[in-house]
Design a protein that fits this description.
alpha/beta; Rossmann fold; 8 helices; globular
Length: 176
């Protein structure tokens, strides 16, 4: 079974994907790790590579091609566009979107990056707008649309285990 876990920064998608992969014994593919590997292969810092990506949609397409190629067998694919990419390529998967308010997301990220929630909030808004424009230009998709997802989980008041439990309930229900 292929499962995608997508969502905005700070929503809990990476933690959920890792825990779900552990619980199911599935391979975990994270776009963040692939992105870092691509930067390293080019001898670039993440910041410099990120700036280059803003100007070159071929890099996004290379990343997304790698994600699609890895969508085989029992795998969890974590990434902002993972659900959209598999949908666009006709690959069947359980597509999960994890969301949280910008207040919750800002607090979560500020806690791990030693920034104020206000700083993080501004960065999130800028990043999401930039990514929305990039994905629209590269793929002609509305990355804000949740239409391709099989389930949406609001994680504000949930623990990671409660998120996983909801996904497992969906898997069990679909298997019936």
């Amino acid at each position: 079974m292929i499962i995608t876990i997508s969502g905005p920064p700070g929503s809990g998608k990476t933690t959920a994907a890792r825990l779900l992969a552990e619980r199911l014994g599935y391979e975990l593919v994270t776009t963040g790790i692939i992105f870092r590997e691509m930067a390293e292969a080019r001898g670039m810092s993440l910041a410099d590579f990120g700036a280059m990506v803003q100007e070159n949609s071929d890099i996004d397409k290379e990343l997304d091609k790698t994600v699609v190629e890895r969508a085989k067998g029992n795998v969890i694919i974590e990434g902002r566009l993972a659900g959209h990419m598999l949908y666009l390529n006709g690959i069947l998967a359980l597509k999960v979107w994890i969301d949280a308010t910008i207040i919750t997301r800002s607090q979560r990220i500020s806690g791990r990056e030693s920034k104020t929630p206000e700083q993080v909030r501004e960065e999130i808004i800028e990043r999401e707008e930039c990514e929305h424009q990039r994905y629209s230009k590269a793929y002609g998709i509305d990355s804000r649309s949740l239409a391709v997802y099989d389930m949406v989980i609001h994680s504000d008041d949930l623990t990671p285990d409660e998120i996983i439990d909801q996904i497992m309930e969906k898997i069990d229900k679909d298997d019936e």
